[in-house]
TrEMBL record:
GO cellular component: cell outer membrane; efflux pump complex
Alphabetic keyword roster: Cell outer membrane, Membrane, Transmembrane, Transmembrane beta strand, Transport
Record protein name field: Outer membrane protein TolC
InterPro entries: OMP_efflux (IPR003423), TolC-like (IPR051906)
Source organism (scientific name): Flavobacterium cheniae
Subcellular location field: Cell outer membrane
Lineage, top ranks: Bacteria, Pseudomonadati, Bacteroidota, Flavobacteriia, Flavobacteriales
Length: 416
């Protein structure tokens, strides 16, 4: 029995010494910082910077080199003769090389609209990451409150073991004086060993859940880590990140509509072309010459067979689809909130019953203890009442943790 007591206090010391404490909000924060998905924000920033640089390049002059050599079946000829002059016919093989420079002057603000669209797309992708990270909170809750429940059960088992060790001391004294049979001591010792086994099982279960929480948060926890049973239930005005995501999707479609509208506006370019060829600009000069041409060029699509109109209609339908998704999401959210609220009410009612049951069980145990000392009931019968008492306390702790989990889930559903 001395060994059993030693095991108990060594276990208790190892469990309570050098414990690391962590809160639920801290777990949320660790997931947000360390989860691989969060690292995409840096890549998205780099992507947006490059895309804006690419759009900016369209404002710079475009330089192109062109060269061609051709042979044609017929060339331009003068249909009459000139007295005292000889006009040589053009060569059927002709050559030309040019260097062309084009500078955008005006395009109806299309480049600025494209830059705006890229920025909104960037924000939409960022918000999609926020949505995914927010949904991980539910998984964090499962692990966190699972570990919390194991902690509470462990405390109950430690309390039960402490109680039985004290009772075993009393039984040993009674056995020594012949008041109780020696078998009573053995029954208690067997129960203490059983409880120690249950404590060991809880520690393994806790280690398993901590491992999953470590992988989710990318943080190493000590196996003696204690989760703080202090859940904030303050209600703040907040929205689910999905609503911002829906709004950004709408903004993205509106920006796309602006681009479609600007795609048919007039586009004005300045250009200069320098070249060398045979013939050059003078078609009657059958020799290689340098030349240049400069000016401005206007392009304006006056009729596109209603292509722009149809593209706008497609984008408008997409906006209607997003509005439908948002409405569906809101309906499901309201349903989940209502169901969770009912669950909270049910657990609160269970906790009221738990208090009454524990109060009655404690009175029964106190009566059984006196009966065992007087030899009216056996130690096994007394242990049976002890088990029922701690089973009631275990149910109470389970309901308390379940209530906290449900309340935390309610906050997540609501968007706090």
């Amino acid at each position: 029995m001395k060994n059993l007591i030693l095991i108990f206090f060594v276990t208790l010391y190892g469990y309570t010494n050098a414990q690391e404490k962590i809160s639920l909000d801290k777990c949320y924060e660790l997931v947000r910082i360390n989860y691989p998905l969060s690292k995409q924000n840096e890549a998205l920033n780099s992507q947006l910077k490059l895309q804006n640089e690419i759009i900016g390049l369209d404002k710079l002059p475009k330089v192109s080199l062109n060269a061609q050599a051709t042979y044609q079946s017929e060339v331009t000829q003068i249909p009459f003769s000139i007295p005292n002059a000889t006009v040589e016919p053009l060569n059927k093989d002709q050559y030309r090389a040019t260097l062309d420079v084009n500078q955008l002057i005006y395009n109806g603000g299309l480049l600025n609209a494209q830059s705006k669209l890229k920025e909104i797309q960037f924000k939409t992708q960022q918000q999609q990451i926020e949505v995914s990270l927010y949904q991980l909170k539910n998984i964090v809750n499962q692990y966190f409150f699972g570990i919390l429940l194991l902690q509470e059960k462990n405390e109950l088992l430690q309390s039960k073991m402490s109680l039985l060790i004290e009772k075993n001391k009393e039984v040993k004294t009674a056995v020594k004086f012949g008041a109780i049979l020696p078998a009573s001591e053995q029954v208690l010792e067997a129960e203490i060993i059983k409880i120690q086994q249950q404590i060991n099982d809880l520690q393994f279960d806790k280690r398993k859940l901590l491992y999953h929480l470590e992988k989710l948060t990318a943080t190493n926890f000590d196996e003696n880590t204690i989760l703080e049973n202090s859940i904030s239930l303050e209600t703040t005005e907040a929205l689910r990140p999905e609503f911002d995501f829906f709004n950004l999707q709408n903004q993205q479609l509106e920006a796309s509509q602006i681009i479609v509208s600007k795609s048919n506006l007039p586009k004005l370019n300045a250009f200069i072309q320098g070249g060398y060829g045979n013939p050059a600009l003078n078609m009657l000069n059958n020799s290689f010459e340098a030349f240049y041409v400069t000016g401005i060029r206007l392009n304006w699509t006056l009729f596109d067979w209603n292509k722009t109109k149809k593209e706008k209609e497609v984008l408008e339908i997409s906006k209607q689809l997003i509005a439908s998704e948002k409405e569906t999401f809101q309906l499901n959210l309201n349903r989940q909130l209502q169901e969770t609220d009912f669950e909270i009410q049910k657990i609160n009612q269970q906790l009221k019953s738990d208090e009454e049951i524990i109060d009655l069980r404690q009175k029964i145990v106190k009566s059984s203890e006196a009966q065992m000392k007087n030899g009216v009931i056996t130690t096994s019968e007394y242990l049976n009442e002890i088990d029922k008492l701690f089973e009631s306390k275990n149910n109470q702790k389970s309901h308390q943790i379940q209530l906290q989990l449900t309340q935390a889930n309610y906050q997540i559903i609501k968007g706090n």
